[in-house]
Amino acid sequence: MSNLGVFASRFSINSKTLEEFDESLRFIRGKHEITKTPEIEERINRLLDVINPISEKIEGKLSKSIVVSELDIVDIIKERHSIEWPGYRKGILRLRFKLNSGKFQLSETDFQLLNDIADALDAECENLFRRMRER
Fold it and tell me: Which end of the chain, N or C, is surrounded by fewer C-beta atoms within 10 Å?
């Protein structure tokens, strides 16, 4: 597969993941207290499809995900939050733990983290699109 094909494939996967992540984030934002129903669990799993590989990278583990480019996304997040990175990475790990629990409330800080992750995923899509245009 040529470089263009690799970038196009990654762009397609990341774009679809970003769309699902954004839809799930909008859906969850309207909930005060979250109890896992089948519909909510599906939305949370879409969030975790992105958060789990990012968390694994933060913990120094190898991710098996093919859904996102977690290395690039973590680099983007780390660059944007370099000053507060130690606390920020702990916040991402706490958010993953919270999303995996049965019943929880998301704080404004949690939504800020989710928005930052969505922004980083969007930035990665932009990078991939730019690279495709350069080919």
Answer: N
pLDDT tens-digit map of 111-121:
999 999 999 99
Please name the amino acid found at residue 49.
D
pTM of the model as a whole = 0.89
Phi-psi label, residue 12: left if phi above 0, alpha if psi -120 to 50, beta otherwise: alpha
Q: Give the burial class of 91: count Cβ atoms within 10 A of its Cβ; 0-12 exposed, 13-18 middle, 19 or more buried.
A: middle
What sign results for the dihedral spanned by CA atoms 105, 108, 114, 115? positive
Q: What type of residue is 37?
A: T
Closest to 96 in 3D by CA, of 64, 50, 61, 62: 50
